Amino acid sequence: MDMLGRDAMQVMSKLKQIVMLGRQAGFFLVLACQRPDAKYLGDGIRDQFMFRVALGRMSELGYSMMFGETNKDFFQKPIKGRGYVDTGGSVISEFYTPLVPRGYDFLTEIGAAANIVPATSTEQEVPNEH
Q1: What are the recorded Gene Ontology BP terms (predicted)?
Q2: What predicted TM-score, i.e. pTM, was given to this entire model?
Q3: Looking at residue 27, what DSSP letter applies?
């Protein structure tokens, strides 16, 4: 459901303040959207996003909305998890994301990678001393 005109203007005004002033304070906005065009992200907000990721197969117009005018050739490869990224240096690179199976336990894997032993009723948690 679309927001009413006045509500939409208030939300966009607050987003603009966060984006424009937040960077100076070390505060950054992470935004995900289906269509990053000026109709929805006006007033220069879209130009302030430095890290941009486009996943999946997009049209030329979609890539243009995401990365602006560029002479990059985008290829329509039918591969799951493939996309393009611009990390803020105006260099657009192809990348691949991992396929994460259903039920994957991120916390357990992160704990194992950090070498943290879960505490039980008879054991104390031992911090990693590296």
Answers
A1: cell division
A2: 0.61
A3: -
